[in-house]
Amino acid sequence: VGVLVRACVTAMEEAVQALQAELQEMRSELQTARSEAAMAAGLASEVDSLRSELRSLQDEMSFFVKRHELADGSTYVGGYERGKANGQGRRSWPNGDIYEGNFKDGVMEGYGVLTWHDGSGFEGDWEGGKRHGRGDYKTPEGDHYSGMWKDDKRHGKGKQIESGGDMYQGEWVNDLREGKGTYKSADGDSYTCLWRADKMNGH
Fold first, then answer.
1. Within 13 Å of residue 161, how many CA atoms lie on the same side as its CB?
2. Which letter does DSSP use for residue 35 in this model?
3. CA 160, CA 140: separation in Å to the nearest integer?
4. Quick check: 10 pLDDT over 80?
5. CB-CB contact of 110 with 126 (8 Å)
């Protein structure tokens, strides 16, 4: 009888241990499920937040989708206030000219890039629809001016490199070399002198 009782006790202990192990496994699985559920809830909340941000961004950027046909035949896409281009935008003309940059009251103002249909281009500052401030102008032939502008003309300090290799660096007035400047030819000759009306005035 004693042997039988001990066998029964041992069996019961083993059964209890098995149940405890199973219970521990269930607890572990439950904890994992809770963690996954919390993560899923967090992801769902994050997705909702991103969707809300996306809708707000779409609302803010919706004006970029609308195209405006202007009186001169050009097409404008961008910031538009009070019936005029304002802020960042892109304007395309029928002849192929394209400007991308900042606008104010319908004209180019601030920083922008204008590419003409012949392949030449200007990148820099604008004021009242004219090149004004610092900027770079390049032609498809290879001419390159980098420097100051005023009322759509080279004015102030600037550097002009011709397609043939000649270079001038110095002062400009109303699109002409005027004042102190250095001229270097493609052959290596160099002159630093005063210029007047686009001509050397002595060296």
1. 10
2. H
3. 15
4. no
5. yes
Strands (E), the chain: 67-69, 75-81, 84-92, 98-104, 107-115, 121-127, 130-138, 144-150, 153-161, 167-173, 176-184, 190-196, 199-200
Name the nearest CA neighbour of 133 among 115, 120, 148: 148
5: pLDDT strictly greater than 60? no
CA atoms within 13 A on the CB side of 167: 13
Rounded to 5 degrees, φ, ψ at 202 are 140, 150
The owner of tokens 């192990």 is: 21
Beta bridge partners of 159: 146, 169
Structure-block tokens of residue 23: 């219970």
Tell me how far apart the alpha carbons of residues 157 and 167 are, in angstroms, rounded to a whole number: 14
What are the tens digits of pLDDT across the range 29-53? 888 888 887 787 777 778 778 777 7
Instruction: Say if residue 25 is exposed, middle or buried (CB neighbours under 10 Å; 0-12, 13-18, 19+).
Output: exposed
Name the nearest CA neighbour of 108 among 68, 76, 154: 76
